[in-house]
Design goal:
The protein is mainly alpha-helical and 419 residues long. It is built from 15 helices and seven strands.
């Protein structure tokens, strides 16, 4: 019996990232059985003579030593399997497909372990949708699309994301006219994903690129409306059923709910409000903290306008965006699409009023900024709101008790209306 067992790159099938599948070729009496290992390598990363990955191979997401040990061990096991068939006089009568499947099982330790960045991100995004973390999903989806367009590939090993990759990614970002602020978001998200992948055992910590690559902060964009612009928005004579009227009313609802974010608003149900509509209690998805807010009479008026005076059942969503006939994915998509529309309405409203563009999210920053300028203590509302600062701000709010914050909020809104 003539037997040859060798690994090689399948040069016929180049991938988008210019790598080639690493396969195991078993030749028995001049008949070839080829089985993929699940890895792909650049030509310069594979040492055909010594049957191993070169030490500095970057297309794989495990160390070259670990993979080479796998390859050597599996090669021996395949040889033992073929030899055993021959000694039992079963080699000539065993169908090639059965031999191929058995070799695949032997290679299973290599084939099944692999999960690249894109596959891992898809898994994370699915969990975000199930947890109704729409904001996080959107940030991850933006990064996913950005990296997919940049690499022009559907496969990106974690170990391939090294210092040079990040430098080139940064240069490409600026080359296309984008700003540093968006780059900072992309890179911080990528860093968080990489850290999760290390904890999940998908990539060795030795490949972690952010030890040497630093992320520079972008210049934050102005988010809050100033007092005069806010009054223009609040007091504009608009048709409540028009697009800009609907946009304004959602913005005011968020403002009167202490800048409640869009997703939390969409998931509010009648049962979150007290029977007399004096308070609303909910758990903020971003911080998982329970909050109770005093309800202004003006908020009830806005809700009625947005619902066209349609009655609200105990289990109904207060704002007419989603319903329980939709599954979680459908709800998340509808919330995201509706927010895009509301933001486009607000952009049109800003053009009409000749003020700077703003979004529904700015209601949170506007509430905090105007509250500070109108006498609300700085230890209740902080001047800056960001990813980490928002949670800190909420801690200050909670420490004073709901009745104190409600009193300040009511006084602030009345002052804005009267002036």
């Amino acid at each position: 019996m003539s037997l040859s067992i060798k690994y090689s790159l399948d040069a016929r099938r180049a991938k988008g990232d210019k790598t080639f599948p690493l396969v195991l070729r078993v030749i028995i009496n001049r008949k070839t059985i080829q089985v993929p290992t699940g890895y792909s390598l650049l030509k310069e990363e594979w040492d055909h003579k010594n049957q191993q990955v070169k030490p500095k191979g970057r297309s794989i997401d495990v160390t070259s030593n670990k993979l080479n040990n796998f390859l050597a061990t599996r090669s021996v096991q395949v040889r033992e399997y073929i030899t055993d068939l021959r000694e039992k006089d079963r080699l000539t009568i065993t169908p090639p497909d059965e031999i191929r499947n058995s070799i695949k099982e032997i290679l299973g330790g290599i084939v099944n372990h692999k999960m690249d960045l894109f596959e891992f991100m898809n898994k994370q995004m699915k969990m975000m949708v199930e947890a109704k973390q729409l904001g996080s999903y959107k940030v991850h989806k933006n990064l996913f699309d950005k990296l997919s367009n940049y690499t022009k590939s559907d496969f990106l090993p974690f170990a391939k994301i090294d210092y040079d990759f990040l430098v080139k990614f940064e240069a490409n970002h600026f080359k296309n006219g984008a700003n540093r602020g968006s780059l900072s978001v992309y890179l911080r998200t990528l860093r968080a994903i990489y850290n999760k992948a290390i904890k999940s055992g998908l990539v060795d910590e030795k490949f972690y690129p952010f030890k040497t690559f630093s992320i520079k902060n972008g210049v934050p964009k102005k988010r809050a409306l100033n007092e005069s612009d806010f009054k223009l928005v609040m007091n504009a004579k608009l048709n409540d059923s028009s697009a800009i009227g609907i946009g304004r009313n959602y913005y005011m609802a968020s403002f009167m709910l202490r800048g409640m974010n869009w997703m939390d608003m969409c998931y509010l149900k009648r049962e979150n409000f007290s029977k007399d509509w004096k308070t609303v209690t909910y758990v903020r998805r971003k911080t998982q903290k329970p909050l109770t807010i005093g309800v202004l009479p003006e908020l009830i008026t806005v809700i009625k306008k947005l619902r066209n005076d349609k009655p609200i059942g105990k289990k109904d969503y207060v704002f007419p965006v989603i319903d329980d006939s939709l599954d979680q994915m459908e709800q998340s998509i509808k919330i995201m699409n509706r927010r895009k529309k509301i933001n486009s309405y607000l952009k049109d409203l800003a053009n009409k009023l000749e003020i700077d563009p703003f979004t529904i999210y700015s209601a949170r920053h506007t509430w905090a900024t105007l509250g500070k300028f109108m006498g609300m203590p700085t230890n209740i509302i902080q001047e800056s709101l960001g990813h980490a600062t928002e949670e800190m701000t909420q801690t200050y709010l909670n420490s004073f008790g709901n009745e104190v914050v409600d009193e300040y909020a009511e006084q602030m809104f009345k002052k804005l209306k009267l002036e």
